[in-house]
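Anyone able to model this chain together with 3-methyl-2-oxobutanoic acid?
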Amino acid sequence: MSVPVKTRRTTVPQIRARKGKEPIVSLTSYHAHTAAIVDRYADFILVGDSLGMVMHGMESTIGVTLDMMITHGAAVVRGTQKALVVVDLPFGTYEESPAVAFRNAARVMKETGCGAVKLEGGARMAETIRFLNERGIPVMAHIGLTPQSSHVMGGFKTQGRDQADWAVHEADAVAVTEAGAFALVLEGMVEPLAAKISKQIEIPTIGIGASAECDGQILVLEDMLGLNPTPPRFVKVYGDLGSGIERAVKSYAQDVKSRAFPSDKNTY
Ligand code: KIV
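re: yes, here you go
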């Protein structure tokens, strides 16, 4: 029996096949209306656990729950038609065992309709990545600066400044590739290491504060739109939404106070 397919999204194998080809465009989104705009240009959209800070004013991603990811993931899937939607597994929902990871990742896939999940960690997560992939859950891996481990790392620090550490990051990249990850986020990593890893492995690398030599790039949408007053230094800010919103809210407040609010258009 076949069912009519409503949308044709970019697939996991299509992202995987972009290795060494046209750079992969991706951004985060947590919200249906902004995701609908991003959808016109992005190959994949990440519902990142950075939503803890951006949407909920948290200090880190540690407090983000599976329910929060599911709520925002479902909103982004509903708002989009074309891009692959990838949803982050938040801290504490996958590290314990492959079985726990499967249970939580399956819930994310069922309740959001997303096409893949992302998790943080290299060699230590290889067994879990293999377990999920063999059971129908495509995994994007994430190494380098992994914010969920910021307490262990002692903060948000660029990785690979000491060349003696490179071998560990390279081994992580190879381990997740061999375990079946379809793409790998390299976050906060010195440029030559990210470029080296991008050449070494067979899956696309997606850089954020890493290297232009990665197979694609990702940014947190609100950072590049100018909504974050203190974006990370590596972020190129393409928009001016913070001051745009402020101007609009100020004009609205002035209209309300001066009773200049239009009343001749009270129809929906
Ligand atoms: O949560 C997030 O937004 C991310 C990106 C920074 C890659 O993981």
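The radius of gyration is 20 Å.
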